[in-house]
Amino acid sequence: MNENLIYVLAKVDFGSITESRFKDRADAVQEALRKDYPIVNKNNILTKIQFDFNQSNEHKIQQSNERIINLCSSNREWGVRITQNFLMLQTKRYDGFEKFIKRMQAILAVVEKEFELYHSAFVGIRFVNKYEYNGDDDFKDVFRRRDFIQPDLHFENSLKGGSNLQAHYLVGFNNLKINSGVMVDGLKVAADFTDLPNDLGIQGDEISEGVWAHLDIDCFYNEPDVLNDFSVEDITEKYGALRKLANNAYAQIIFSKYPELS
Predict the structure, then answer these.
(1) H-assigned helices in 135-198
(2) 80, 109, 163, 209: most buried, per Cβ within 10 A?
(3) How many other C-beta atoms can be found within 10 angstroms of the C-beta atom of residue 240?
């Protein structure tokens, strides 16, 4: 296991399920997953906010609540959220692609059967790596590519206060987004994960005290305005390609003595 890999989130979008179908089969889905995910989290409501504008450009806010399935493993190292449109699998102990994809395949098979899914769209996985500052190396033994860490500027009596780089690469319909840099007393996981890590016992306002470098690799397949036939095998192949893309980026940025995302 790569100890610097502190959090992984995967997401699959599928053709929308009707509210009635979701309610009718939610208990069956939960029961099918109960052995691996016995903990039922209390935050099982997804709030949606919609802004509507009339001809006078006046806006009206509409809010609706949607039930979701929100489960965790017995040790809270893995979590699953399922809505009418997508599912997410998250972990704070990613111990290899084979174990990850086995879990994802099992969940996909359950939702395909119980909800009678016909189409899929977005497929993504995000890897969050953190590296603690040891006091004297400026992360030079970690980052092979210094352009993904805070650049050096020479000023008299200056100290680095942090940096944040964002980069986006396209490889066919596969996307690679990288967020990297250095933070001082920053959040353990990025704020855009909202309350998701809370399910695993990682509080949204949890701080990593001191100086930490981060490498956040977000890989996803997204073919605009296209729905694919739902297939566990097809989604598995997409994750295999995304894994290779993420590992390729990681190997170019981080020195080889740090384990790959695997």
Answers:
(1) none
(2) 80
(3) 12
